[in-house]
Design a protein that fits this description.
This protein has 13 helices and 14 strands. It has about 300 residues and is α/β, with parallel strands linked by helices. The chain has two domains: about 170 residues, Rossmann fold; about 130 residues, Rossmann fold (3-Layer(aba) Sandwich), CATH 3.40.50. Strand 6, helix 8 and strand 7 form a beta-alpha-beta unit.
Length: about 300
Amino acid sequence: MTTTKAQRVAFGETLVELIDQDPRILVLDGDLANSTRADIVANARPERFFEMGIAEQNMAGVAAGLATLGFIPFISTFAAFSAKRDLDQIRVVIAQPGLHVIITGAYSGILTGKTGKTHQSVEDITIFRAMPNMTVVAPADDVEVRKAMHALVYDLNGPAYLRLTRDPYKTIFDDSYHFQIGKGVVLADGEDVALIGTGEQTVRCLEAADLLAAEGIRAYVLHLPTIKPLDEEAIIYAARRTGRVVTAEDHTILGGLGGAVAETLGEHYPTPMKRVGWRDVYGESADNNALLEKYGLTPRHIAEAAKALLK
């Protein structure tokens, strides 16, 4: 694993790449281009960039109209706004008719550059995975962002929510990686406990696996970049392989990845498990490391949850 570019930078660069190969791609921004890095498109391909202002509801409607004309619009805004402020418009004019619009949720989770609880979104996975017709994707790094964006354009014919983080962390994939909508990725093999992550929290699962290995505990690490549709077979296999499951997400455990995994195991293969994530609280403004520590999202917290199950 190496230090990487931020997911939001990969997002902007990949948009330019897609625009150059496909005349259907358009970008609609909610007055946050310099934060979401949709400004990369505004500067490089201004004719395909539309500044909609602080009018997220209208932006969803415009995207729906463009989709009916054969375009593939990307909506660019913060997760806190895409999952709440314009939710009714997304539900009625995008999701219900099943239009091919890709909604991005930048600045997702807790690590939002000290913006505080008003701009932190830890409910967005729950909201969008409950919405019929909606695909939900949370990439782990910048490489997967690029691969996922291509898949959402060319392997999907319906609405999608793409969850992105703000700050650079670590790259776990290389260019040979093949992203598939609805498929999990096994990142480490082990038989003692399964660590299941999504988004950037998967990288912390790998770090937790290293901590456990130092104590002689072999962890099976499963990355689920697609929360909907969910790779239930991969989840069940991980549970059968280890007999213990820990989920980790920078999101509420109520209806997010932990909830989805618990639903799957409850129906198909009941397994002792623990959910690492937000526990029905709002966040606050602080440095990234302080927030991860206070709210129990570090690799050490994941490893401790695994050891608690082993006891």
